[in-house]
Amino acid sequence: MPDFRVHEGDELVEYQWPERTREWWDRWRNSAQAEHFSSTDWEFLLDTALLHARLWSGETSVASELRLRVAKFGATVEDRARLRMQFAAADEADAKRPTSVGKSARERRGAHMGVVRGLPTKPKDDEGA
Fold this sequence. Notes:
Layout lengths: L4 E4 L2 E4 L4 H11 L9 H18 L6 H9 L5 H6 L2 E5 L1 H6 L8 H5 L1 E5 L14
Antiparallel strand pairs: 1-2, 3-4
């Protein structure tokens, strides 16, 4: 997790991330979606991490904003369905990729994110069926 300093009175002190936020950040960093994040996505996620830290420090007023932000990244199955994301087998894609030093999200998870086109945005109405 990125380290930075914050003002505390007249002093600049190193910000202390809650352990739970460090775990949350690592989960996002290692997620299948992370392979597709741009630098601006990471900046937005870092700002979101600050909200997460505030929540885990007892500031519950940030919960709704945190939920809205993580939904943009596909945090839950429902979010990923709304964003039309799906995890698919990545064997073919991995075979085409150059070998890297560390394990990629695909190697760790065995799947990658893709966009599914042509899915209905709303469930069909059962009435009249």
